[in-house]
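Appendix B: a complete holo record

For completeness, this appendix reproduces one full record from the ligand-bound portion of the collection. The bound molecule is uracil. The inputs are the chain sequence and the ligand SMILES; the output is the full three-dimensional arrangement of the complex, encoded as structure tokens. No fields have been trimmed.
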Amino acid sequence: MTIHIGAEPGQIAETVLMPGDPLRARWAAENFLDDVVCVNQVRGMLGFTGTWRGQRVTIHGSGMGMASASIYANELIRDYAAKTLIRVGSAGAMQHSVGIRDIVLAQACTTVTMPSRGIFRELNFAPCADFGLLQAAHSVAQSHGLRAHVGNVYSSDVFYDERADLTEIMQRHGVLCVEMEAAELYAVAARFGVRALAVLTMSDHLLSYEALSAQEREQSFGDMIELALEAAFTA
Ligand SMILES: O=P(O)(O)O[C@H]1O[C@H](CO)[C@@H](O)[C@H]1O
Ligand SMILES: O=c1cc[nH]c(=O)[nH]1
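The structure of the chain with uracil bound, as generated:
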């Protein structure tokens, strides 16, 4: 057990899917895994371990924001020996070419700041996805006929963003969407030599103002969950 995760040693699988929303973790575990056991409830953050096509998988919430995701990623890797971490998140589309409910595979992350900034200081570290996972996720998306895009995402510290000027600059530079965890997940994974990928479903559109409901964000991202599971075990 750690300060934030109540699982016993051995109760966390090497492959971990990480939605921000703990209730999305429960929904995904109940709908996609067999033999599910709840392995964490500390602070209301839910984690579940089960099997998918015979392979052990944990689905564990990250909470919202890079500070929270960093705590869980650190403990999952350092204390429970997680080796593959795949964020399964929602995001706001920033380009006309990216539609609501499309999937974005985060190849790299743009940030203003991130928790690891304190370690990197003057270094502009480039958080990027594990190439094997990225390649596998892209090929699974293609074979399933999903609308999937690969590219740069903005990992923001704020949901209610006052910097329209920065959004405009990122849009001109092809950044596909905004979310709040991937950059730090990639940095922590790099630090410990494990694999990470963020798979994101567009729940909002910054240009068309379309937006999914809270219930849809919790319970309707099945394509993304299946994509992440298939990618994890084919890469
Ligand atoms: O739906 P999740 O995975 O939480 O992801 C997005 O949704 C939250 C904001 O509503 C942030 O965590 C953001 O990254
Ligand atoms: O961070 C996020 C997540 C979903 N939608 C947004 O607009 N921003």
